[in-house]
Design a protein that fits this description.
Number of helices: 6
Protein name: DNA damage-binding protein 1
Strand content: over 45%
Strand order of the largest sheet: 10-11-12-13-14-15-16
Distance between the termini: 19 Å
Pfam families: Beta-prop_RSE1_1st, CPSF_A
GO molecular function, one term: nucleic acid binding
Largest sheet: 7 strands, antiparallel
CATH architecture of one domain: Orthogonal Bundle
CATH topology of one domain: DNA polymerase, domain 1
Keywords: Nucleus
Subcellular location: Nucleus
Structural class: mainly beta
Length: 1113
């Protein structure tokens, strides 16, 4: 049987970001291990699969166009270009228009396939003037490439290079200009090309200087390599380049320093910065050999400590944040620094002899990479947490989030139930919650936990309204005092920054970014709207808009918001009399004030108006307007003319609306009526109600998740490392899947963590919740054990609405010598438990209700996964792939039946029937093992499993789960069917956990540690030929063939088998990157392969297949 695999949800674990300066402006490029992402201005990401594993990537700015240089595990050095001939900006008649995509320009092999610590490819360093490039191994070897703009990729006819025929771009590179450098015993830590001294004459521009941080025997040093371009150029250059590379050093560094990051300085020739693990910054200058200085030297111009500039907790006395990246600003003397703990700083360098100036700005999520995109915009990539696109003002030292880059990695578990899929992720999503009351401002921890800090106004003062942003700036008004207070919200503190008297009592506040400035709009009872700019020291006056007579007190501002279209920004003011005013905003640089031009006045209703933006900050051209009813207000720009359009949103009896999250598309709102509270996603561009995708923060990373059908709740097991301790402590939570409400919490003893969880089906309408743990200690100092905990969960009637409607009770426990890695319901009344390398069968005694071990078997390796079907048990071993055991209830014995014929490292397994199991291993392989003979046949006891299909998904799979998510897309006519075959129904009455009846087992979902969700479905035999033919055509088509290694089958093949009986939906979806002319060529080639004469039917089938792959699950 053949299967179809496709990525149901793309991975979101970006490791770094780069900026590609194209003819159409800068483009943010996101890099993961096997994908590239093109970042749009709204935060959306266009994914380009590479079908290879990236080791490193860098930007090469050539004279004509920039290239993305990539190394991969296949040993290739690839030059890619971004083709921006986007169809969205082209005429509909242009059949050559296509979406943005990467294209291969040049490629050749620099190392053998695989990972080798002495093979180049681990790190790429590019000269800032694009004169040279170096590719490093971990140790011993690196390749130094000389770049020349007169060269073209076609000059390497004798090499193993391959170029894209669809691109006319030429790379300033030739393989003959490569110098291989060997440094025996040295490990390459970091490397940076230095800027030349342009004032020293043209001769110095021909000298390329490379500084390499190396380590040998625990001692760090710096080696300087100089390449001097020969004059005149030798005709047979390939035999002489190494003669022009000179080595200086090594120059030892102080023994107490551990280098972390280096960066070349464009304003300080032959100088670079080196950061260390103790937050020391060394300014190092290389003095080359000249007639006056016969010896090359390396000078520490200055050494600066950044410890005092970063606010650290009192407990962080021995461990400091690490500088992970440094980004150049438009001012060449100023840089933005980022630490792994999320600290953002600015660094300004003056003259070489003067100390640098360092200023602390703010703290964001834990960061792994910071890149300058354009002007004051930067890309911040999170380390297993969401990234951001930030606007950082150097003058005011303010940080504004432009958009959020989602990251849900790592995904640790998945469950599919009743057409809905739930996955757990390490992404918590928020740093804290600020609650504003009349008498206090309180900062709570993640998920609304413990109080972290508070601010209390003086006696007699009362907070009347508040507004803030996502960067920790909060503005509150003190009505009676007619003052506005600026508060700065930190990780664990709320600090008052300044107070400003506005002269009138505020009625509402609005916070936004207008014309690149953070602005607070203060509506007053005058009535008027004051504009105040926000900076580090407080507020400054920026203009006033008087609204005229108050008309009996009802013409008072009740809500303020800013909407945008193109480059225009419009101030929306909602009044208490139900009128909405819209003013076009302008900024006068000379007077530093805002101007207002009335655009429109609309009578919306009789009740006071409230505006609800579609984004938390920097709202777009649409907002919701709440008065008597809910409306959509749109700012329309047509031929330089602005108009306001109002449309009714069909949701009745709404009393309040709030924006829940703007990270989903479409955004999600909370709607309240007199009797209900609803979570609804609205496509604000079309007023169509769409299905919501919930995302709930649980304050602790969830490890395991199960869905309880009886109560329709999620049971989530979380682990958290306690402050100052290396131990993890577990917690069990009962969560409403629709609202995220946490009904119950069950804490485990300190140091005991959750490893596994299942629903134990005893009999019909009777089930328990079972938890497998590790780290339990009966007394301090005693060796830790594992436990099996059994809970009952019941729904109860409570008269008080403040009490949870559920009750959880611990019924018993069973102690085991090692951690419990897997638990599984078995044959309706038993529980299978994997602890260490032993498999236990547990049962509850009828009278005492105590857990009792009925059988036990010891295996060769530790057990990592369990899955059952009837009396058959599939056991995944740490180094022994999957073995099949059977259990005989009468003798209470386990019997070994079959095993895999290969040694593999499974991470999870899922039984598809009594004779078939789907396995995922830690190297990214997904394979299916089939038992060729019945278990009762003992005549051939040594027959192994047969591999029925296998594929390499490219990411480590953590969990497998069977089910079906509703997509509303009919796939029967495409030949897609259930992965379970009818003849596999040997024991259809089995209700064990992880096993579904054949009619339910339509899809298997596999989740990865990088955040991807893959789906696996079956293909009908009569349709396999069509699918495989389309896959073969696209794998060899120039515009869709893999970019890394240029061998699709090699990437998808596993270590033990080639790609077998699998059709890759991700490759077929590459069809979407083609122009109309290219699509027609693919369809023509495909229908010739399958013998289909009807051109219209062929195009319809291919288009339907591609459209279906976007949605089927």
């Amino acid at each position: 049987m053949a299967v179809l695999t496709s990525t149901f949800r793309e991975s979101s674990a970006w490791t770094r970001s780069l900026t590609l300066h194209t003819s159409k402006g800068p483009r943010g490029i996101l890099v993961s291990s096997n994908k590239l992402g093109i970042l749009s201005q709204d935060g959306s990401i266009k994914i380009h699969p590479l079908f290879g594993t990236i080791l490193d990537a860098a930007i090469l700015d050539s004279s004509k166009e920039p290239f993305l240089v990539v190394t991969c595990t296949q040993g290739f050095l690839s030059f890619l270009r971004l083709n921006l001939d986007s169809g969205s900006f082209s005429s509909l008649q242009n059949t050559n228009a296509h979406p943005d995509r990467f294209e291969l320009v040049h490629q050749f092999q620099i190392a053998p396939p695989g990972l080798n610590y002495t093979s180049p490819g681990q790190k790429i360093s590019v000269d800032p003037l694009s004169r040279a490039m170096a590719v490093f191994a971990h140790q011993t070897t690196f390749a130094f490439f000389v770049l020349d703009p007169t060269l073209a990729s076609s000059s390497t006819s004798s090499s193993s290079a391959s170029s894209s025929s669809s691109s006319s771009a030429k790379v300033p590179f030739s393989r003959e200009y490569c110098i291989t450098v060997r440094e025996e015993g040295w490990s390459f830590w970091d490397a940076v090309f230095l800027y030349p001294d342009s004032e020293a004459g043209a001769g110095r521009l021909d000298v390329v200087t490379l500084a390499v941080v190396v380590c040998k025997n625990g001692i760090f040093s710096i080696i300087i390599y100089e390449y001097k371009k020969p004059t005149p150029q030798p005709p047979l250059f390939k035999t002489t380049p190494a003669n022009h590379l000179t080595k200086y050093g090594p120059f030892p560094l102080p023994s107490s320093l551990l280098p972390t990051t280096t960066h070349a300085l464009p304003t300080h020739p032959l100088s670079f910065l080196l950061f260390t693990d103790t937050l020391d910054m060394l300014h190092i200058t290389h003095t080359p050999t000249t007639p006056s200085t016969p010896q090359t030297t390396l000078t520490h111009t200055s050494q600066t400590s950044l410890i005092d500039q970063i606010p650290l907790p009192p407990t962080s006395t021995s461990t400091y944040p690490l500088i992970t990246s440094l980004a150049q600003t438009p001012s060449q003397n100023t840089y933005i620094l980022a630490t792994d703990s999320g600290h953002i700083l600015t660094l300004t360098l003056t003259n070489p002899g003067n100390p640098p100036h360092v200023t602390y700005i703010t703290r964001r999520n834990h960061t792994s990479h910071l890149t300058h995109l354009a002007n004051d915009v930067y890309i911040l990539i999170g380390d297993m947490c969401p990234g951001e696109v930030l606007s950082i003002s150097l003058s005011t030292k303010t940080v504004t989030r432009v958009c959020r880059i989602e990251n849900t990695a790592p995904v640790l578990d998945v469950v599919v139930s009743r057409g809905v899929g739930y996955v757990t992720s390490g992404d918590v999503g928020v740093d804290g919650v600020v609650a504003v009351y009349a008498g206090v401002v309180v900062l709570f921890g993640r998920g609304g936990g413990e109080e972290q800090g508070r601010w209390v106004p003086d006696d007699g003062e009362s907070i009347t309204c508040a507004a803030g942003d996502e960067d920790g700036v909060l503005v509150v008004s003190l009505g009676a005092r007619k003052e506005v207070v600026v508060l700065r919200v930190g990780v664990d503190v709320v600090v008052e920054v300044s107070r400003t008297s506005v002269g009138f009592e505020p009625s509402t506040l609005g916070f936004d970014v207008v014309k690149g400035r953070k602005v607070v709009f203060v509506g007053t009872y005058e009535p008027a709207v004051l504009v105040l700019e926000v900076d580090d020291v407080g507020l400054s006056f920026g203009g006033v808009l008087e609204l005229g007579a108050d008309n009996g007190g009802w013409r008072i501002p009740n809500s303020i918001c800013v909407i945008r279209s193109g480059g225009e920004e419009v101030l929306a003011i909602g009044l208490r009399d139900g009128t909405a005013l819209f003013y076009v905003l302008a900024y006068n640089v000379i007077t530093s004030s805002f101007g207002f031009k009335l655009l429109d006045t609309i009578k919306v209703g009789l009740e006071p108006i409230r505006f609800i933006p579609t984004r938390a900050l920097l709202s777009d051209s649409h907002i919701l307007v709440l008065s008597d009813k809910v409306w959509r207000a749109s700012l329309i720009e047509n031929e330089s003319t602005l108009t306001i359009e109002l449309n009714y949103v069909c949701i009745d009896n709404v009393t309040n609306v709030a924006l829940l999250t703007s990270s989903t598309t479409p955004p999600t709102y909370i709607f309240s009526t007199p009797t209900t509270l609803s979570f609804i996603s609205i496509d604000i561009t079309s007023s169509v109600i769409q299905t919501i995708r919930h995302s709930h923060s649980l304050s602790k990373p969830p490890r395991r998740i199960i869905h309880d059908h009886a109560t329709n709740t999620l049971i989530v097991a979380c682990n958290k490392r306690e402050s100052g301790s290396a131990e993890m402590t577990g917690e069990i939570k009962l969560v409403d899947p629709e609202t995220g409400v946490q009904y119950l919490r069950e804490m485990l003893p300190k140091g005991e963590s959750c490893y596994s969880m299942t629903v134990w089906n005893i009999k019909d309408q009777k089930r328990y919740i079972c938890i497998g743990t590790a780290g339990y200690r009966e007394a301090p100092g005693v060796k830790s054990q594992g436990r099996v905990l059994v809970y009952s969960l019941k729904e109860v009637e409570n008269k008080s609405p403040y009490k949870p409607p559920y009750k959880i009770k611990k019924l018993g426990e069973y102690k085991l010598p090692e951690l419990v890695f897997a638990v599984c319901s078995f044959m309706k009344s038993y529980l299978l438990v994997a602890s260490g390398n032993c498999l236990y069968q547990l049962k509850i005694e009828a009278e005492s209700r105590a857990l009792h071990c009925g059988a036990k078997v010891e295996l060769r390796y530790p057990i990592r996964s369990l899955s059952v079907s009837g009396s058959n048990i599939f056991v995944g071993g740490a180094n022994d792939s999957v073995s099949l055991y059977s259990f005989e209830p009468r003798t209470k014995q386990f019997t070994f039946c079959r095993s895999d014929d290969l040694t593999r490292t499974p991470s999870d397994c899922l039984s598809l029937s009594t004779s078939k199991v789907l396995v995922a291993d830690k190297s990214g392989e997904l394979y299916c093992l089939t038992n060729p003979t019945p278990n009762t046949d003992r005549s051939q006891p040594h027959i192994h499993f047969k591999t029925s299909f296998c594929v390499n998904l490219g990411e480590t799979i953590t969990r497998l789960h069977a089910g079906q998510m509703d997509t509303g897309f009919e796939v029967d006519d495409l030949g897609i069917c259930s992965i379970q075959e009818d003849e596999d129904m040997e024991e259809p009455d089995t209700i064990d956990d992880g096993v579904k009846r054949a009619k339910e087992l339509k899809t298997v979902y596999a989740v990865s540690i990088l955040g991807s969700v893959f789906s696996v479905r079956g293909l009908k035999e009569e349709s396999v030929e069509r699918w495989k033919a389309l896959q073969d055509v696209l794998s060899s088509f120039p515009a869709t063939r893999p970019l890394l290694g240029n061998d699709y089958m090699r990437y998808r093949s596993t270590a033990s088998h080639g790609m077998q009986n699998v059709v890759d939906g991700d490759l077929i979806r590459m069809y979407e990157l083609l122009s109309e002319a290219e699509k027609q060529r693919v369809v023509d080639e495909w229908r010739f392969c399958v013998g289909l004469d009807d051109e219209v039917e062929a195009k319809r089938w291919v288009e339907t297949v591609v459209r279906g792959l976007r949605t089927i699950g």
